[in-house]
């Protein structure tokens, strides 16, 4: 376990305030912690913060497979349904997902009435993405008035 006292990190014998930390000691402590607890990121410890990879990189992250099924209003024609499919496929791809399949099923009778509708058109989309993408897709589907109900499932590997 790495133990560093704050008194050892304070700059002494200089004109700087004693509350400022000695940056060399802080870098050494950060590097030791990264090597011990997060080996894939240890190679970036010696880089300045500006040179380190940002949150948009996928270091240490894994893409998971998801399946979403959503029901759109039954009174939409095939062109409008295809526009909705393309819209959400594009949204997922813009968020960094890889869409494997997005297809319209058919119009089916619902088990119970949803938002005043007794039937709806089912759409199924399979994609591979990071964990933030399903949350954002769900938010966008809640906002869309043409979608009656939606569910996003994480698939087993």
Overview of the structural elements:
With 157 residues, the chain is α+β, with helices and mostly antiparallel strands. It folds into two domains: 39 residues, no CATH class; 91 residues, Alpha-Beta Plaits, CATH 3.30.70. It is built from four helices and four strands; from the N terminus they run ααβαββαβ. It has a four-stranded antiparallel sheet with strand order 2-3-1-4, with helices on one face. Strand 2 and strand 3 form a beta hairpin. The longest helix has 17 residues. The protein is elongated and about 65 Å long. The chain starts with 5 loop residues before the first helix and ends with a strand.
Features:
elongated; Alpha-Beta Plaits; alpha+beta; 2 domains; single chain; 4 helices; 31% helix; disordered N terminus
List the helices and strands and how they pair.
Blueprint: H1 6-9, H2 23-37, E1 64-72, H3 78-94, E2 98-114, E3 117-129, H4 132-143, E4 147-154
Antiparallel strand pairs: 1-3, 1-4, 2-3
Short description:
The chain contains four helices and four strands. It has two domains: 6-44, no CATH class; 64-154, Ribosomal protein S6/Translation elongation factor EF1B (Alpha-Beta Plaits). A four-stranded antiparallel sheet has the order 2-3-1-4, covered by helices on one side.
Number of helices: 4
How many β-strand runs?
Answer: 4
Shape: elongated
Series of H and E elements: HHEHEEHE
Report strand %: 25-35%
**Which strand order does the major sheet show?**
2-3-1-4
Q: Mean pLDDT, nearest integer?
A: 76
CATH class of the largest domain: Alpha Beta
- Kindly provide the radius of gyration, computed on alpha-carbon positions and rounded to a whole number of angstroms: 25 Å
The CATH fourth-level homologous superfamily of the largest domain: Ribosomal protein S6/Translation elongation factor EF1B
- Terminal Cα separation, in Å? 35 Å
Q: What are the low-pLDDT stretches, counting only 5+ consecutive residues below 50?
A: 1-14
* Percent helix: 25-40%
- CATH-defined architecture of the largest domain: 2-Layer Sandwich
State the secondary-structure class.
alpha+beta
Q: Can you tell me the number of structural domains? A: 2
Q: Which fold name is given in CATH as the topology of the largest domain?
A: Alpha-Beta Plaits
The biggest beta sheet reads: 4 strands, antiparallel
